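Reader question, answered in our methods column.
A reader sent in the components of a multi-part assembly and asked whether the whole thing could be modeled at once rather than chain by chain. We filled in our standard form and ran it. Here is what they sent:
COMPLEX SIZE: four components
ENTRIES:
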Amino acid sequence: MIENDLFKALADPTRRTIFEKLAHGSMNASDLRQGMTISQPAMSQHLAVLRKARLVREERQGRFVNYQVDPEGLALIAGWLAKYRAYWPARIDALKDLLKDMDQ
Amino acid sequence: MIENDLFKALADPTRRTIFEKLAHGSMNASDLRQGMTISQPAMSQHLAVLRKARLVREERQGRFVNYQVDPEGLALIAGWLAKYRAYWPARIDALKDLLKDMDQ
DNA sequence: GAATCAAATAAGTGTGTGCTTATATGTTGT
DNA sequence: ACAACATATAAGCACACACTTATTTGATTC
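And here is the structure of the entire assembly that came back:
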C-alpha cells in the first residue's frame, strides 16, 4: 500500500529534513549528510524509505548516487488531500492564486 | 511540533480509516467503531492522536462525544505540500479541474 | 587486479507505538 | 445517591522503527 509507505516515510523528522534538502536541489547521499549528525548507513536507510514511498528518485552517477525529488509521491499526497477538499474551502482562493502563478 | 504530530497521526492505517469515516460525516466514538474490529480504548487512543494533530475536533453532547474533521490539520498538510509546488507541474491540469468542480 | 572511495546491506539494540485488560471519569435517568 | 452507559486513562506487552558498528557491493583509478 503506497499511501501507507508515504505517510510512514514522512512521519520521521529526519526524513522530512532530507526531503526538504533535496527539494532545494538534487544531491548525492554524501552531500546530504553535510550539516546533519547522521551516520552513512542511517542516511542510506532513510533514502531507501523515501524511495519506497516515491518521494525520491535515485540516479547512479559513477560511484555517487544522485538523489532528487520524485514528483510522484507529492502527487499522491495531493491526491489524498483532494479527497477531503470539502473541508478546506477557505483555502480555495489561495490555491487558485498558486495555480495562476504556475501558468507563467 | 505540529507537523510531526500530523504525519505521525496519518502514518497509521487505522487512524486514516477513522479520519475518512469522519470525513463522510461526524460521529461519536461508539458509532465510529461500527464495522471496525477495534476495542473501545484503542479507538479512544486513536482519537486522541488525531485530536493532537488537529485532524479531528471533539464536541461533547451529553454522554456522547461527537467527533468531526478539523480543517486545520488538512490546511497544514496543504501548506506543507505547497512548499514543494515546484515539483508537481504535471498535475496542474488535474488540480485545475478539481478547483473548477469546487466552484459549483 | 589491487587500492580507494561511495553507497547499501546485515545484525544487534534501545525506544516508540498500537494493542490489550482493568480501572477511572463523566453524564444521564431513576 | 445509585445504576447504567460513553469515553478516557493506566499499565503492561509484543512488535516496529531508527539508530549503531561491521561488512558487502559497486565503481573508479592506478
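What stands out: Helices of chain B lie at 2-10, 13-23, 29-33, 40-52, 71-82, 92-103. The mean pLDDT of chain B is 89.
Send us your own complexes using the same form.
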